[in-house]
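Annual report, structural modelling task.

Input specification for the fe (ii) ion complex:
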Amino acid sequence: MIDRARRMKPVVPPRMLHDIFTPEENRRLFHILRTNGPWRLIAAIYFKSVEELLAISSPGAGGTRPRSLSDMLNPSFRGFFGNHGLPYEEEAHEIFYSRKLVDLVKSMHGARYGTPYLFQFNIQGPCHGYDPGHFDGRSWRGLDPTNMPAWLGAVMAKSGLFDAWEVKAGQVISYYYPSDVDGGFTYWPDGPEAAPQRMAAPFWNSGLLTDNQHMYHRGEACGPRDRRDTPDGMTLDSVLEADGEQGWRVVDGDRLIARYQPSDMRILFHYSAHVFTDMDELKLFYDHKDDLTIERAFDMLIADLKRRGVGFAMPGDPMTDRAFIATLTETYAMSPSHYPAEAPLDVRPAIAA
Ligand SMILES: [Fe+2]
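The model returned the following structure:
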């Protein structure tokens, strides 16, 4: 029997943080956002099909089931200051390797050793609250978000079959949303079936120390309420870039899709570290003594489907077989069921036939 509640509870509840970065660190990070774009849509970075996206974030009850990724577009863009422990942006080097950040994550786990893993940012235009809640990509020895698709990581996490290979981690999230029009953070610290809690906006250089890989959470609807519909003409190829001194614009090839004021945007910086309780745990990871492989992960998932008596056609290529991905998503289905009264789950309008 799957103990779902235990699997999707953080190691400790999230803790609110203020003044996360120094003024100089914020200046550098925002300078990268302004000068090194354009930035791609989150959906375009991670997903090849709607089935892959639904493995991460299943629609709430009553929601319209999307038929393609294009039905799920919203102006949420992402870039990377660094990944896999490596700074990608020169100006962010010292911030990614900040002792303050790694020590915060170590403190969550009582861990002795730690190393920066991922440092990314989201820039979000005005948007409805369509995210029903999700958890962030997890790392196992041998497999992590840098060498496997996001949908497979989500299925592996929900299945619980791979917990013995898991790498401890935690996040420092810093929000920048000066408005008090919605825009908060909902989280489910007691598991997806329990009541959520939320942190309300405004935020500026404030956020949380959190175990987002074991806790359902979501950014709530944000931006001016009359601008939250997906901009006409936006596609998976649309990108965000700086517009003038302070604004932003969405462009698609040579088409201008939308323009935003800085006050319309919600920005977050997301830092994640891997940590190790002791030298034995550290060596197990770095010496690759007990790594998972993609082949072994699929063998274990397929064996589990058979044990459960789930009917499915053996996939030719399990990595891209949409029916197989949908079967796994359904088998390990899990999703929040309660939402804060102040931040309901918005339902997408019906899709025209
Ligand atoms: Fe997240």
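Residues 294-308 form the longest helix (15 residues).
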